[in-house]
Give the backbone structure.
Amino acid sequence: MDCHQCHQNHGSCGSKRSLRWLPFSENLTRPPIEPGGPQIALVGMPNVGKSVLFHALTDTYVTVSNYPGTTVEVTRGAVTLGDRAVSVIDTPGMYSLLPISEEERVARDLLISESFGAIVHVLDAKNLGRMLSLTAQLLEAELPVIVAVNMMDEAQRWGLTIDREALVAKLGVPVVLMAAARNRGVDQLREALADRLASTSVPAVAAVG
């Protein structure tokens, strides 16, 4: 099915929801996604490399569609963890669980309306301080958070260091240091996700007021 033209001309499919298949590899041996199985969400502020990480994790086809009733696009794909494929969603950029933009509202609504076995909060290592407020909100919502401190290569060029063990002790959740654009830390994140899903019996929904 070729929906590239459909994406540009909604009338050809009779729907305002766009669907685009994006082949990132020819790996067709991925196991099928389990119906009703756990999902993973990537969450973070704009410009933290969240989409780069999404494409590093999803090495086959993904779909891009408008969230119902909005012009905001949501990207869905799959990541292989062990011997199974798990759904992964790249949510729109957000600064807070208290939305002030359409993108933030869609991201918040996704966390509220869908169940997730893991929430990967992607942070820019160069601006860690101002980004941890969203981490705190996600934790207060009792979501199964994994912190991915991205852009470590840029932080190192700035002479910055991140104490991973101190972050783990402070936040009480797994922390992965990575540079997704260089494929550094991606395997470690896969391992952390597999461990999280193995220990989470029931996927979580955000407890946001």
In short: Helices lie at 4-8, 50-57, 102-113, 128-140, 152-157, 164-171, 186-199. The CA atoms of residues 165 and 175 lie 8 Å apart.
